[in-house]
Structure formats: structure tokens, C-alpha cells
């Protein structure tokens, strides 16, 4: 019996035992307990948001890693979910605390767990010249789960073609990522825009688009200005929209580039993906979690 243990007096760290008496270290000092008063496992009540089942019990060892805890929760939910999109919280007095990986134990209390799942979105309304394929996602999730797939969009004719993401950007902070499969010699624009924007025009000319032009490294609205690096094939571009503050920020290969636009409060905003050249291809990645 090593590591974190559960006792009638809360969580503690097992130090040693002698003659059936176990010495446990607490934040307030040491205690001496009988063996039947000490356990290395606990059954947590779990409430899950944005997924079913919405409530269940989960028996776990108290020295479990956060990654392993996510896997157990995904297995219990029974659906292919990207592990990084699972946030686990434990309510504390006056606040909710997100569990983080610790050297000894991720748990500080035995209170119930709250699980928030950020589900990946899809490509939604799009120009006729765009085609969507579903491809396997190569990063392993969990051996017991079915193959995880992601949508990939490809332009099959020349001209300006726009696709929208399926999420409405009404509130909170929303983050998503794309991988540049093939950019070629044409412009590729990634950002946000009004869902009323036409699908077959240059998004930079509409006044309804705010974004990052990957081929030039410029930020684009009604005009273009230098902003970040030019992107190439296999680069990953992250987009963060904060509806409360109206800010739009970008990441390049997990590196934060900064805020590109402020005070964007237009109604009916959605993620926008705009291609201009036949053969250009983007893949919408499942990660919805901000890079560290």
C-alpha cells in the first residue's frame, strides 16, 4: 500500500505500517489508523456534460494519472472522444477546480467529479466546388475504442470556395485547429465570418470575414496587414475566438501568434475555411483544447 490513501479523516499519504497500524501523513500532521480504515481506491460519482450517460459511478485507484482517468471516463461513455477534449473538475468551496497532473496524486478531495467534453465540430454549409472526405485520425486514442475519424475538405475546381464550421460562436471561448494538407500557390483563409456571407466570392472583399491568410502570413478583414508566418504543408493552425471580449487569436504549430482582431461582435458568426485553388486541402483536427 503506497501513495495516496482514503481514510475517515480525508485523503493522506501512506508512510509506513507496523503491526497492523498504518501511519498516514495529512496536511495537518500524522495519524495512526487500523488497516480496515485505509483504502487506495474510491468510487466517485461523475456528472458528464454534453455527453450521455450524464451520470455514473466510477471506481478508480487514488494514484491514477489524469490521462488514465480520462481513458476510464471515455470507456464508460462508450464513444470515441479525443482525450485532450475531456476536462475533469472537482467542485470545491466557492469554486470549481480543474484537475491537473501532479507528481503524487491528482485528487485533493473525494468530492464528485464533473466532466466537460468539448465535442469536435464538422464542416457545414459550403460551396459546391468543395468536397468533404472522412479520413482516419492517426494519433492513437484508446485501444478499446473504435477508429477515430476526422473530416478533410478539398477543392475540386478553380475559384473562390468557402465552407462554414457547424458551431455557432455565440458565447464563451471556442478553439479549433486545422492541418494544412496542401496549400499550393493560392490563398487559403482561416478565421470567422457571418453565416450570411456568400460562398463563392473572395472572403476578403465581403467585410464579413476576419481571419489569417495562410499563404501570405497576413491578417485579413477589409484590408490585409502582416501578422504571422507563412504556412506550408503539414502546418497546424489554431483559431481562438473569445465571444465575451470579441477577440480573434491564432496559433501556428502550437505557438501563440497573438490577437489579430478585437471588438468582433457580429451576430451569426461561424468558423470559416476559404480555399482558392483546385487541389487545396485542409483537415479539421479533433483537438478543441488550447495549447499550453
UniProtKB/TrEMBL annotation:
Superkingdom in the source lineage: Eukaryota
CDD domains cross-referenced by the UniProt entry: SPRY (cd11709)
Residue span(s) of domain B30.2/SPRY: 101-291
Residue ranges the record marks as coiled coil: none
Signal peptide span: none
Protein's UniProt name: B30.2/SPRY domain-containing protein
Amino acid at each position: 500500500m503506497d501513495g495516496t490513501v482514503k481514510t475517515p479523516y480525508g485523503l493522506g499519504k501512506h508512510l509506513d505500517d507496523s503491526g497492523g497500524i498504518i501511519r498516514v501523513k495529512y496536511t495537518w500532521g500524522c495519524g495512526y489508523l487500523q488497516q480496515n480504515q485505509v483504502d487506495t481506491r474510491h468510487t466517485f460519482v461523475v456528472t458528464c456534460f454534453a455527453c450521455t450517460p450524464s451520470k455514473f459511478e466510477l471506481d478508480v485507484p487514488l494514484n491514477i494519472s489524469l490521462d488514465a482517468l480520462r481513458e476510464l471516463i471515455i470507456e464508460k461513455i462508450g464513444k470515441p472522444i479525443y482525450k485532450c477534449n475531456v476536462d475533469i473538475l472537482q467542485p470545491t468551496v466557492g469554486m470549481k477546480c480543474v484537475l491537473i497532473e501532479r507528481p503524487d496524486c491528482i485528487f485533493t478531495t473525494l468530492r464528485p467529479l464533473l466532466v466537460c467534453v468539448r465535442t469536435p465540430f464538422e464542416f457545414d454549409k459550403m460551396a459546391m466546388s468543395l468536397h468533404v472526405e472522412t479520413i482516419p485520425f492517426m494519433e492513437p486514442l484508446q485501444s478499446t475504442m473504435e477508429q477515430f475519424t476526422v473530416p478533410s475538405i478539398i477543392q475540386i475546381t478553380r475559384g473562390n470556395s468557402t465552407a462554414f464550421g457547424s458551431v455557432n460562436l455565440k458565447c464563451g471561448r471556442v478553439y479549433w485547429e486545422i492541418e494544412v494538407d496542401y496549400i499550393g500557390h493560392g490563398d487559403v483563409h482561416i478565421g470567422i465570418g457571418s453565416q450570411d456571407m456568400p460562398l463563392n466570392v473572395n472572403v476578403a472583399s465581403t467585410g464579413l470575414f476576419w481571419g489569417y491568410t495562410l499563404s501570405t502570413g497576413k491578417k485579413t478583414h477589409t484590408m490585409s496587414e502582416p501578422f504571422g508566418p507563412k504556412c506550408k504543408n503539414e502546418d497546424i493552425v489554431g483559431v481562438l475566438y473569445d465571444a465575451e471580449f470579441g477577440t480573434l487569436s491564432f496559433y501556428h504549430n502550437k505557438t501563440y501568434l497573438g490577437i489579430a482582431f478585437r471588438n468582433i461582435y457580429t451576430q451569426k458568426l461561424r468558423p470559416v475555411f476559404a480555399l482558392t485553388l483546385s487541389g487545396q486541402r485542409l483537415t479539421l483536427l479533433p483537438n478543441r483544447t488550447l495549447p499550453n
